[in-house]
Write a structure and sequence with these properties.
The chain is an alpha/beta fold. It has helices spanning 4-9, 15-22, 26-31, 42-45, 58-67, 75-78, 86-94, 98-108, 112-118, 130-135, 142-156, 179-191, 207-210, 219-232, 248-253, 284-293, 318-329, 350-358, 427-431, 462-465, 470-487, 489-494; strands at residues 171-175, 194-198, 235-237, 256-261, 267-268, 281-283, 310-314, 334-339, 362-365, 367-374, 380-393, 399-403, 409-412, 415-418, 422-423, 457-459. It folds into three domains: 4-156, Alpha-helical ferredoxin (Fumarate Reductase Iron-sulfur Protein, Chain B, domain 2), CATH 1.10.1060.10; 171-266 and 424-494, 3-Layer(bba) Sandwich (FAD/NAD(P)-binding domain); 268-421, FAD/NAD(P)-binding domain (3-Layer(bba) Sandwich). The protein is built from 22 helices and 16 strands. The structure holds flavin-adenine dinucleotide (FAD) and iron/sulfur cluster (SF4).
């Protein structure tokens, strides 16, 4: 994270920043109401894949930026896992210098247009904003402003390419092109390493591409950010499964001196209840990957997905919301969320739940499936649900769901999507027995450096945390890049 002492002493006291602060009294700034994000009409958007959030227009972004008080102690920064200098980029927006705002974002965040769209800011930087902490008012819309600056730059035709260090002539391999791998590669290239990202799939971006749907994060946005990394000199190799196509030892022989494993948590969990292996019962991973990456929404394609009419999605996280909203867009008459706790306990972002409700998604909270039935062809036709009530809080701090005996009833379905969590991708750990893993299959690392039990292997993101968030994965990637830099430092000195 950036040294804030220097920030207080210099950047914050630049003449234009001081003038900007003087231009409005703090009271005038805090009286301005937070802007709202323009959105597509719910009953039109639930039939197509257009992006739901439309982005702030420039005039609204400048007004929102003027709410920021340029605090002497910017607590917002402490809530950002990649340590973006938040007041600095916001003040550039207030000054209408949008390109410099984007430049500040890219100093610490490789994927600002992505994070501006999918980060849970309400639980991170915005929760730590002075407005939330001390004024008990709506925080500065940091996420909306981040997206504004990044989109402005993408559309300006003047995309800046961050400076990279002098080539050190040392090869480092990054395994997996999700946010953890991209953030790590972005920092390694800035240090001057010769970086190659190996990706098992035919598309780059990890969950950003195969999981999160177009209506929340268009693929083109991810591609622009990846193209910028290519311009910085990062090399990408698709369709290579490390541990199968090539081993870590093969890469060592090719001269790689260190490795970052960001292979994610792509192994879906199931509930193991009767009937769960009937046809038309999918894992959310398969369902979303087929639609997002394999054009399965197109019936003329080789691998179409069942566009069910009565679709139940089991779960309450972001993945469940993405699946149920996808099912609605594929034409489902009834698209239902089945979740065992109440709406307040749902782990999905508040905004995703709001959008789903607006799009006529049905929520069956405090219900859990106990069995499925099917027809002669083995296709699911109904699910048996049991009602639940909430008990005392469990280890996660949320109230435990307790089944109500005798409350079972049947609901007709033709498609079910199971979204009850994921487990770490087992491929790399199983190919490297010397790598220390936890009982849950996550790679164990030193949390300061992200170094694993094998000294030249570092890891981060979902393979270390289990299913988490984009920005936490990116924070890990950045930390690991610093760890790798320290680890191979002796080679740099020797060169
Ligand atoms: P991943 O993004 O999973 O990337 C891992 C990559 O490694 C994949 O591309 C995989 O193909 C590749 N790989 C795996 N094994 C190998 C191998 N052996 N060789 C080569 N390549 C390999 N988080 C948010 O913050 N906000 C959201 O709104 C949000 N929504 C989500 C919606 C869905 C549907 C899902 C599934 C997750 C969502 N998340 C969200 C969580 C977030 O996307 C993940 O936490 C994040 O992507 C983890 O990043 P990662 O780089 O660790 O792994
Ligand atoms: Fe601006 Fe809020 Fe950060 Fe203060 S805490 S600098 S008001 S974004």
């Amino acid at each position: 994270m950036e040294d804030l002492t220097a920030y207080y002493k210099t950047e914050r006291n630049q003449e234009w920043r001081v003038e900007l602060r003087k231009s409005k009294k703090a009271k005038e700034r805090t009286d301005i109401k937070r802007v709202s994000m323009p959105e597509a009409d719910p009953h039109v958007r639930n039939k197509n894949s257009e992006e739901v959030n439309k982005g702030l227009p420039a005039d609204k972004a400048v007004i929102e930026a003027s709410r920021c008080l340029d605090c002497a102690n910017p607590t917002c920064i402490t809530g950002c896992p990649v340590g973006i200098n938040i007041p600095k980029f916001i003040k550039y927006i207030e000054k209408e210098d949008f390109l410099n705002a984007a430049k500040v974002l890219k100093e610490t965040n490789t994927l600002p247009a992505v994070c501006g769209r999918v980060c849970p800011q309400e639980k991170q930087c915005e929760e730590q904003c002075f407005y939330s902490l001390s004024l008990k008012k709506d925080p500065v819309a940091i996420g909306h402003l981040e997206r504004f600056a990044a989109d402005f730059e993408q559309h300006s035709g003047q995309m800046s390419v961050p400076e990279v260090g002098q080539p050190l002539g040392i090869k480092v391999a990054v395994i997996g092109s999700g946010p953890a791998g991209l953030a790590c590669a972005g920092d390694l290239i800035k240090f001057g390493y010769d970086v190659t990202v190996y990706e098992a799939l035919h598309e780059l971006g990890g969950v950003l591409k195969y999981g999160i749907p177009e209506f929340r994060l268009p693929n083109s946005i991810v591609d622009v950010e990846i193209d910028n990394m290519k311009k910085m000199g990062v090399k990408f190799r698709k369709d290579v499964i490390i541990g199968k196509t090539l081993t870590i030892d093969d890469l060592r022989k090719q001269g790689y001196k260190a490795f970052f494993v960001g292979s994610g948590a792509g192994l879906p969990n199931f509930m193991n209840i009767p009937g769960e292996n009937l046809n038309n019962i999918f894992s959310a991973n398969e369902y979303l990957t087929r639609v997002n990456l394999m054009n399965a929404a197109n019936n003329d394609y080789d691998t179409p997905v069942i566009s069910g009419n009565l679709v139940a999605v089991i779960g309450g996280g972001n993945t469940a919301m993405d699946s149920v909203r996808t099912a609605k867009r594929l034409g489902a008459e009834r698209a239902m969320i089945i979740y065992r706790r109440s709406r307040e306990e749902m782990p999905a972002r508040v905004e995703e739940v709001k959008h789903a409700l607006e799009e006529d998604i049905e929520f069956m909270n405090l219900h859990s499936p106990v069995a499925y039935s099917g027809d002669k062809e083995g296709k699911v036709t109904s699910m048996r649900l049991q009602k639940m009530k909430l008990g005392e809080p469990d280890a996660s701090g949320r109230r435990r769901p307790i089944p109500i005996e005798g409350s079972e009833f049947d609901v007709e379905v033709d498609t079910v999507v199971v979204s009850v969590g994921v487990s770490p991708n087992p491929l790399i750990p199983s190919a490297l027995p010397e790598l220390k893993v936890s009982d849950w299959g996550t790679i164990e690392v030193n949390p300061e450096t992200m170094q694993s039990s094998v000294s030249d292997i570092f890891a981060g993101g979902d393979i270390v945390r289990g299913g988490a968030t984009v920005i936490l994965a990116m924070g890990d990637g950045r930390k690991a890049a610093a760890g790798i830099h320290k680890y191979v430092g002796h080679l740099v000195k020797a060169n």
